[in-house]
Amino acid sequence: MSDSLNRRKFLQATAVAGAASLWSPSLSAETLYEANVSDIGKSKWDLDSPALCVDLDKMEKNLKAVHTALKGTGVGVRPHVKTHKCPAIAKMQIAAGAVGVCAAKLSESEVMLVNGIQNVLMTGVNVTASKIKHAMELRKKYKGFIQAVDNMQNARDLQDAAKAAGIVADVVVDLDVIKRSGVRNGQPALELAQFVDKAPNLKFHGVLAYDGAVQHVEGFKARREQALKTFEPVVNSYELMKKAGLNTEIFSGGGTGTYDIMTEVPGFTDVQVGSYLFMDHQYMVIGGKNNEKEFDDFAPSLTVMATIINNSNEGKYVTDSGAKALTLNVPHGKIIGEPDFDYNAGSDEYGSVKIINPNKKYNVGDKFEVIVPHCDPVVNLYDFMYGIRNGKVEKILPILARGKSQ
Amino acid sequence: MSDSLNRRKFLQATAVAGAASLWSPSLSAETLYEANVSDIGKSKWDLDSPALCVDLDKMEKNLKAVHTALKGTGVGVRPHVKTHKCPAIAKMQIAAGAVGVCAAKLSESEVMLVNGIQNVLMTGVNVTASKIKHAMELRKKYKGFIQAVDNMQNARDLQDAAKAAGIVADVVVDLDVIKRSGVRNGQPALELAQFVDKAPNLKFHGVLAYDGAVQHVEGFKARREQALKTFEPVVNSYELMKKAGLNTEIFSGGGTGTYDIMTEVPGFTDVQVGSYLFMDHQYMVIGGKNNEKEFDDFAPSLTVMATIINNSNEGKYVTDSGAKALTLNVPHGKIIGEPDFDYNAGSDEYGSVKIINPNKKYNVGDKFEVIVPHCDPVVNLYDFMYGIRNGKVEKILPILARGKSQ
């Protein structure tokens, strides 16, 4: 294949709808990634670093594994795009059998909708007049956009805005799990759901509940116990609504750490897995159902290539990839092939690697491949990721919702 | 002024050169920021959050203050663009009297050069064949591009690449201060400088030394002592080179925490201040020469607007601005007007604010204005910042080198 053919194919494959967005960018793949197309075919070891890479074989395996594991349980998959922020990957998730996707924020939802993802459930709430108006405009254009609400005033505001937009907006109620977002369970939750159900310009679809604190509990048994206990008040709210005759077609929540636990929750419809695609060091250390030492249901597919730029100090290597490449999350990134090295990305521009039980000696210019500490915020630092197959760049995946935290 | 006039003026003001870059993007302001032009004229309190804002009056005051303070000391200002990543701001720094700018990485340097900044000193080293080749191509095109080197093999590689490119490349030697980057001081430093000086395709300009660990030492006296002590071996290297008859026209280093201390270093030519423009909570707490409690030589101009999305839990507010908006840096962000509140951005999508000694009650939808924990990595999360004057958006400042960590 000639370079120009590669380039043409790339531009066709990644062309995105250019509709204007309140927050911009209506990024065209042509503008942003043209220059990096010349990297297609290169070895990942030859990329200018820091370079965000996803191993496509591993990611595709993860993509299937979650569906295989949940087959026959009655629980579906509604992947959370806050992890990858990449419409091209969202399309793979839909093709693999996802019932739709979740998005954290309105601007993130918009990037997905504008780029051809039809069913987007926004898990965060919109509380300002500006965002609510914009959400209703989006719903008017994209029928598969579902919004969350977690307080009565907000439900009234959504009703008013939907009416003003001349639509019936699809709504789920977010239930409190970890005292962060969500309406109080029990009677307050039921009343909010009933209000939404009766509001002429809102349609109630069910509930949402995210047990963020449970996802990283170490040890499957402890995690299972905590997850099910934490969800008891949520299940109670769900059952009150069901008894009241409300539409409970959606009972969504959970994540990569509890995807195989939520199947035990009565009425639960779908898990909001995100990290399962990429994995990261934070998830690897929590332990899985079948492997207490390492959570290995999914393979770590996401890495950052980092280059050694200085080896003149005893006991350490300095790299070109610091907090702006890997974030400050802990546990630190994990170097493939050097399990005991400690990769400290605490400095903005530089990584500092403590040499412990080395398998070889490294020179300035050599590269480390680093499993990321926490995938979501690392992805949010890059404009694109390199899709790697057999060690070579197969394609470039634009992270079009990067920075879309509004 | 009509909206369309604003928009036209904005497009004229922010138009950037669209030359292709190895890492892309050749972002055109038109493509990226058109949609946000409609925010010009809005109150900062009405912006969709998280929104990165810079108070222009404060930033302009800071821009002047560093020059005023250093007037007559013989020490110049070579601001580090890793802090703002914004060519428009680099131009303001040059206009205010900077001798040029520093950039941390090659891709960051390129964005500055391509967008009209003539004198760029890259403080990091390029050690791979790909980056060295690209650096020489840049130097061929932009005469004011200066590169750093910190080991002999790298100097040989630069010489070979400069020769292959048919140029004489301008080089400074990076000296070790905190065992991160830099050649060992004394004889090794001298030998490296002499090698560069004799290399037919390299021109030696002097030295560079960054005392990163000293910048945030609390208390001016302690900071001054440590800074001067840490710099002793650096000064020794500089004097060896001077004695050897080498060109020592550049002796660059320091930062916002030591800008008023480096004036005591013999031979020192310019400070690489970055944070002075924006300030942040990390710098505010170190104390200044004239105010031990707060480092207030410069005013905190950079803030993130965050919206309260949930107030249903006692003792805290939940906002829409977490680690993807403010990073995990400590000390936490500081809410203007609520000095005792603790803003924890530890969660990716949500901020959690502990209510301590409140001055008022806040409702869902109200906004906090948050002084950022650490300016550099926060800026690196946003595609643009809002330039605010008297509380209103005056202009949009594209952060064109965002994510340029290569």
TrEMBL record, chains A, B:
<dbReference type="InterPro" id="IPR026956">
    <property type="entry name" value="D-ser_dehydrat-like_dom"/>
</dbReference>
<dbReference type="InterPro" id="IPR042208">
    <property type="entry name" value="D-ser_dehydrat-like_sf"/>
</dbReference>
<dbReference type="InterPro" id="IPR051466">
    <property type="entry name" value="D-amino_acid_metab_enzyme"/>
</dbReference>
<feature type="domain" description="D-serine dehydratase-like">
    <location>
        <begin position="301"/>
        <end position="389"/>
    </location>
</feature>
<dbReference type="GO" id="GO:0008721">
    <property type="term" value="F:D-serine ammonia-lyase activity"/>
</dbReference>
<dbReference type="InterPro" id="IPR019546">
    <property type="entry name" value="TAT_signal_bac_arc"/>
</dbReference>
<dbReference type="Pfam" id="PF14031">
    <property type="entry name" value="D-ser_dehydrat"/>
</dbReference>
<keyword id="KW-0456">Lyase</keyword>
<comment type="similarity">
    <text>Belongs to the DSD1 family.</text>
</comment>
<dbReference type="GO" id="GO:0036088">
    <property type="term" value="P:D-serine catabolic process"/>
</dbReference>
<dbReference type="InterPro" id="IPR029066">
    <property type="entry name" value="PLP-binding_barrel"/>
</dbReference>
<dbReference type="InterPro" id="IPR006311">
    <property type="entry name" value="TAT_signal"/>
</dbReference>
<dbReference type="Pfam" id="PF01168">
    <property type="entry name" value="Ala_racemase_N"/>
</dbReference>
<protein>
    <submittedName>
        <fullName>Tat (Twin-arginine translocation) pathway signal sequence</fullName>
    </submittedName>
</protein>
<dbReference type="InterPro" id="IPR001608">
    <property type="entry name" value="Ala_racemase_N"/>
</dbReference>
